[in-house]
Design a protein that fits this description.
Blueprint lengths: L3 H10 L4 H19 L3 H24 L10 H9 L6 H24 L11 H23 L3 H12 L6 E3 L5 E3 L6 H12 L6 H8 L5 H10 L3 E4 L2 E4 L1 H20 L1
Antiparallel strand pairs: 1-2, 3-4
């Protein structure tokens, strides 16, 4: 399975800068989180930051030179990369097609003036386009650099999007331990589904993760009735209401307790 760790390690092994790779993945995560919460302005802003880092990574890969991630001059870097020689289809994608896509994202950010005075508010359509562009660019890099197949790319994206939950520890067999003792069974289920979001978790994998099957179907039915989860024959997944519940009721409560 291709994971973010493997992807990052492979790029570093090939001489690419660890800081650029790490910040690139962080920006992608931020874009996807903002998309889920319908924060169109945040999507456009961080898609543009993602785009800057894509160009920094391409230069790093093609020339061996490291770009300062805190001082990226997009237009200068974009024009430099477009003038790189190309002798293969892969180089055309890397130094022409991908830069054109991220340039379009950066243009939307600048024309909408997102980072400054909002002359024109970013719309839903802007947000959809920018997210889709990022969703295309990152897998293309995996395909180009790791020669992975589409299934492996899908697994990588899922691993990148996995929620960071400090009260959950995951082990090598795929099982998890919830490190809090004060949660109800319903809250444990919701926290587990949140951790694996946006993946839909099968009943079998949910039981495996929680290491219990006791009355789990009763709890799932109850959570579905409360519209906190969506269930199909393939398994369960949090609704937007369920995500909000976990973030507001479970994670915020944890942060409050840690302050005292």
């Amino acid at each position: 399975m291709v994971t973010y760790k493997k992807f990052a390690e492979e790029l570093v092994n090939r001489g690419m800068d660890k800081t650029i790779i790490s910040k690139l993945i962080d920006e992608y995560r931020t874009v996807k989180r903002a998309q889920l919460s319908d924060d169109h302005e945040k999507v456009v802003l961080h898609s543009a930051k993602f785009s800057e880092l894509i160009l920094a990574l391409i230069k790093n890969k093609s020339s061996g030179k490291v770009v300062d991630v805190d001082n990226i001059y997009f237009n200068k870097l974009y024009n430099e990369i477009r003038n790189y020689p190309r002798s293969s289809a892969e180089e055309v994608i890397l130094t022409l097609a991908i830069p054109k896509v991220v340039d379009s994202v950066y243009t939307i950010r600048n024309k909408k003036d997102v980072a400054h005075v909002k002359a024109i508010d970013p719309s839903f359509i802007d947000s959809v386009y920018c997210t889709t562009a990022c969703d295309w660019v990152l897998p293309e890099l995996v395909l180009l650099f790791l020669k992975a197949d589409e299934k492996e790319v899908s697994e990588l994206i899922s691993s990148i999007l996995k929620k960071k939950v400090p009260t959950i520890e995951e082990f090598e067999d795929g099982t998890i331990v919830i490190l809090r003792k004060d949660l109800s069974r319903s809250d444990e289920i919701l926290l587990t589904l949140y951790y694996f979001y946006p993946q839909r978790l099968s009943n079998e994998n949910l039981i495996k993760s929680l290491k219990t099957a006791s009355n789990i179907y009763v709890y799932l039915q109850r959570l579905e009735n409360e519209k906190l989860i969506h269930r199909t024959t393939a398994g369960s997944k949090l609704t937007q209401l369920g995500i909000k519940y976990v973030e507001d009721k479970l994670l915020m409560k944890q942060k409050t307790n840690q302050k005292h």
